[in-house]
Design goal:
The structure holds two protein chains of two kinds.
Chain A (H helix, E strand, L loop, with lengths): L1 H39 L4 H15 L1 H17 L1
Helix pairs in contact in A: 1-2, 1-3
Chain B lengths: L1 H5 L4 H30 L3 H26 L6 H29 L5 H22 L7
The chains are: A mainly alpha, B mainly alpha.
């Protein structure tokens, strides 16, 4: 039984960890490109900000689902 | 000073995004209510699980939108800081809400909860593109 619980916790950790890595790479790239765009064309900063906000929502959707499923595994299944 | 004045017309993008995000949240709330009512025909547990799924999605996202779009940072550095800090808070709120729901709400039906949660995420992708396709023309 303890082994089964340990496997569930491990699965949750892998699920949330990989999702976090993906989100970190995606949002890091996004922030870098935003700064690059802002440095090239400062007059477009408000437009870039709006698009940054939108794409941020797209990037972090899958990690959020991962967090939800991971929490479910940890608190409800294990 | 000149740069700050130059960026003032740009606030229309922030207003435009704010209006668009408001519409998207309203649609998502309506979808949550529809799913809740539909699952109410099945069982009460499924209905409140679906409602909780919708709230778990909406609460962190509304906070993030309020945190990011409610501020008027003009410099790219300030905007980036707002976004990242808002994102961190969004994650923290999500984790706390999920943990609280799974610990405190018993009995809970996971299928309607995750169905609503994932559906709202997908709806967000779709609506961002559909409400205004300016984003696709960039």
């Amino acid at each position: 039984m303890e082994m089964a619980n340990a496997v569930v916790f491990l699965a949750a950790a892998i699920l949330m960890g990989l999702a976090a890595i993906g989100a970190a790479v995606g949002i890091g790239n996004l922030g870098g490109k935003f700064l690059e765009g802002a440095a090239r064309q400062p007059e477009l900063v408000p437009l870039l900000r709006s698009n940054f906000f939108i794409v941020m929502g797209l990037v972090d959707a899958v990690p959020m689902i991962g967090v939800g499923l991971g929490m479910y595994l940890m608190f409800a299944v294990a | 000073m000149k740069q700050a004045k130059k960026s003032v017309p740009g606030t229309k993008f922030t207003k435009w995004t704010r209006a668009k995000v408001k519409i998207i949240f309203q649609i998502q709330m309506a979808v949550t209510l529809v799913i809740t009512l539909a699952t109410l025909l099945h069982s009460v547990v499924a209905a409140y699980s679906a409602l909780i799924g919708g709230i778990l999605y909406l609460l962190p996202n509304v906070f993030f939108a309020w945190r990011v779009l409610g501020r008027q940072s003009e410099t790219p550095r300030g905007i980036l800081a707002d976004m990242y800090i808002g994102e961190i808070w969004k994650m923290v709120i999500s984790i706390l809400c999920f943990a609280a729901v799974f610990i405190l709400v018993q009995p809970l039906s996971p299928f309607p909860l995750f169905l609503t949660f994932i559906l709202l995420q997908i709806l967000n992708w779709y609506l961002q593109m559909k409400v205004d396709d300016r984003f696709l023309k960039l």
